[in-house]
Design goal:
With about 500 residues, the chain is of the alpha/beta class. It has 19 helices and 13 strands. The chain folds into 2 domains: about 260 residues, 3-Layer(aba) Sandwich (Rossmann fold); about 180 residues, 3-Layer(aba) Sandwich (Rossmann fold), CATH 3.40.50.2000. Strands 3-2-1-4-5-6-7 form a 7-stranded parallel beta sheet, with helices on both faces. A 6-stranded parallel beta sheet has the order 10-9-8-11-12-13, sandwiched between helices. Helix 7 runs parallel beside helix 9. The radius of gyration is 22 Å and the shape is globular. The structure holds uridine-5'-diphosphate-xylopyranose. The site of uridine-5'-diphosphate-xylopyranose (UDX) has 27 residues, from helix 1, helix 14 and helix 15.
């Protein structure tokens, strides 16, 4: 390959086929494309179909000559719900079907056809522990991007030590005891706050084995990209650096992406940067315009969480009994998979009609930025948590699985911008928490949330911010590591 070619590397980006990770990686892909890198984005066919159907992603990326989408099957039937309760089936599909295709793509040069340049660098989701050896085998440097929260990822890295010391598995009567084996979080994390996967009694369970492989593999790669900043998770980053010294905290990534697009005059209000897998219903924005400032509870449980009809009823009663207005994004399939098979009881339907706006999916970043929003009732997915930080919206957290248990505990105990409803999702607790944040301690939470917004923005708002610096360092390192490839050719 000619030397001058390498100043524009060809990066293969390989996300986990879920809304949160795809969202993050598309933002990173665009930032690399703005730096004139060639980028191939490897989606599953299912994800790609939904992106093309519900977003302007194709026309957005057509502006970047070296950008291509590639797709692979995910090994699941078309009608598979692909919800959090079936996560292991998604993971198995990636391992059994996608892994060999990924290896073939990296070694048979197919990806160079469209881009006219061989792949010189790989960025893969941290969950793909198989990717590093495949890239090494092809002589291509790889950096992992773990899109879950670093405070939760750190507990993943501590899992071997927790197993060795006997802290995992743990029993139900230990749930409220503090965890000893997660350095830096000894005074914060209880056993019930650990990632939901750690609550197993069987250490041979597939998900435990996948996490152990993940934390073994990540330090063997060239580096680790993280969606956070020193201002948000400084102590956690110090802990992570003891294992992965070459890390790139570039978050909140959605805000860094917006800041860089604006300064590159690439952002236009007409074409939003939504990467939604469902249709964004923007009719709620007009409804929000008619509501008083900070008067509305925004409710969403993200793209994977599912709730039972009992939990749904508790949520409905709790919100209605709080007397507040609410905007509810009720994702199709979020009610244990049978989205439409429930009816709101008579005694609630009038109040919900009068004070609520219920939609299937909204453009969440814009909703959270709306002045009418006073509280986010969330499942504590990491992207949602960061988006709420940046907009200064306090949270009530009802975590479902994965990293969400750790996130909700940190929101309450470390960042102090919300209340952790973990394991207590009943109508009385919900109403009490809403009144605490929107009435009794309104000033305290507003002050804390706006302090967090300043902290979250500090790393991205101007060129001098730490996330800008770390992103530029990543760009340079990709260039240098890609040079190694050309030196061998
Ligand atoms: C998953 C895991 O659940 C989460 O714990 C992990 O941190 C990331 O991967 P998800 O459940 O989808 O993510 O939650 P989250 O990380 O919050 O991502 C959801 C994304 O969908 C957010 O960027 C949010 O802005 C967007 N969203 C959600 C919408 O655009 N509209 C909606 O109505 C709801």
């Amino acid at each position: 390959m000619a030397k001058n070619d390498v100043q524009f590397p060809h990066v293969l980006i390989f996300p986990l086929p879920l809304q949160g990770p795809v969202n993050c990686m598309l933002k990173l892909a665009e930032l690399l494309a703005i730096n004139e890198f060639h980028v191939t984005f490897l989606n599953t066919e299912y994800i790609q179909d939904r992106l093309l159907k519900h977003t302007h992603v194709q026309s957005r990326f057509d502006h970047y000559p070296g950008f291509n989408f590639e797709t692979v099957p995910d090994g699941l039937p078309e009608d598979h719900p692909r919800t959090g309760d079936k996560f292991i089936e998604i993971a198995n599909g990636m391992e059994e079907v996608v892994k060999p295709l990924f290896e073939e793509m990296l070694t048979n040069g197919k990806l160079s056809l469209k881009s006219s340049k061989p792949v010189t660098f790989v960025i893969a989701d941290g969950f793909y522990s198989f990717a590093n050896d495949i890239a090494k085998g092809a002589g291509i440097p790889l950096v992992y991007f773990d899109t879950i929260s670093p405070c939760s990822l750190w507990t993943f890295f501590c899992l071997p030590r927790l197993i060795e010391s006997g802290e995992v598995p743990f029993k139900e009567d230990e749930y409220d005891r503090k965890v000893k084996g997660v350095p830096g979080s000894e005074n914060c994390l209880r056993y019930r706050d650990l990632p939901s996967f750690f609550g197993t009694s069987d250490l041979n369970e597939r998900i435990i084995q996948l996490i152990l492989q993940e934390v073994k593999e990540i330090p063997r790669s060239e580096g680790l990209i993280l969606n956070t900043s020193e201002h948000i998770e400084g102590p956690i980053l110090s802990q992570l650096s003891t294992i992965c010294p070459n890390n790139y905290p570039i978050g909140p990534l959605h805000a860094l992406h917006e800041s860089i697009l604006l300064s590159a005059q690439k952002a236009s209000p007409q074409v939003n940067s939504s990467n939604s897998l469902w249709e964004d219903d923007i009719s709620c924005m007009t409804w929000l315009d008619g509501q008083p400032p900070k008067s509305v509870i925004y409710v969403s449980i993200g793209s994977l969480a599912v709730m039972t009809s009992d939990q749904l009823m508790e949520l409905c009663h709790g919100i209605v009994n709080s007397g507040k207005r609410f905007l509810w994004s009720q994702r199709p399939g979020s009610l244990g998979g049978q989205y439409d098979n429930y009816t709101i009881p008579e005694e609630l339907s009038d109040a919900m009609k009068e004070r609520g706006c219920i939609l299937s999916w909204v453009y969440q970043v814009e909703v959270l930025a709306h002045p009418a929003i006073g509280l986010f009732l969330t499942h504590s997915g990491w992207n949602s948590t960061l988006e709420s930080f940046v907009e200064g919206v306090p949270m009530i957290c009802w975590p479902y699985f994965a990293d969400q248990q750790v996130n909700s505990r940190f929101v309450q105990e470390v960042w102090r911008v919300g209340i952790d409803l973990k394991d207590k999702c009943d109508r009385v607790t919900i109403e009490k928490a809403v009144r605490e944040v929107m009435e009794d301690k309104k000033d305290e939470f507003e002050k804390s949330a706006s302090r967090m917004a300043k902290l979250a923005r500090q790393s991205v708002v101007d060129r001098g911010g730490s996330s800008h610096y770390n992103f530029n360092r990543l760009v340079e390192d990709i260039r240098v590591m890609s040079l190694r490839i050309s030196a061998h050719d």
